Here is the input.
Amino acid sequence: MKAIYLLLLLPILATAHNLPNFLSVDTDKEYIATIDTLRSLLPKNGDPEILIGLALPYSLLDIQPTKFTSLIDKNQFTNFNLGVMSQAIFKAKEQFVVGLPNRVLCQNSTCRKTRMTLINQFMAEQAKVGEFFNQNEDILIVQRTTDDVYRINNAFYTPSGIIQYQPSAVAGFVPSANWSEYKSTEELTSCNTCSVRSTTVRNIMAQYNVAAIVREANMGLNVIFGGISNNHWGVMVIEQSADKPKVGQRNSLGFEYEDVIELTPKAYYYQTN
Here is the structure.
């Protein structure tokens, strides 16, 4: 996160001439509607520390503009979104938000060594993870916050129920203001077996503190151990013709690789910033 947009929600997003270049009038309306939806789900003015968990990669407050085509726009929006979330929902102080990347970025050999140790332990289980995604082609995203709070594709599971989001019409925001609530997995007709089928993978994620695993369109598995906004770290597992990460290039989310280390010809540690 080389810059962060600490924009107040309504005064700045209300008029077209003040919109960031990655938002149009239509996408701005979708975004504000999404914020209103999230506000209705969360306690008002909660402890800013809660933001850390809810803004984990692919978690509830990590809104993804899935229909953006520009990688730079995706990156800038993600940075912008964290600033808006901190202000619109948590009323966090600017100093708190600006300091969040320092909690997840690794800039020295000591913390990198610690990460490598954890990743190498996880790689012993990677065959099971890869087999799961190969056998369950309808599951592209598995995100875990806790044992009881997790995401599969665009469905967010909690002890009180399941919220299934539909991408917004123009920007493809997920979460969005278009959602349906279900009380049980049996009601979730789009994938009523997803939760059961993903149990083993979610248990592996819990064991190694993995935040999310995402099947990329180019047949790679992005195993995200942690991060916030556009600062992620993890391991990219290459399958078939998937692109190998390289320093200075951007991943599918638009985040620039800052650190890349080849672990095996098919597995690469990375950090984005």
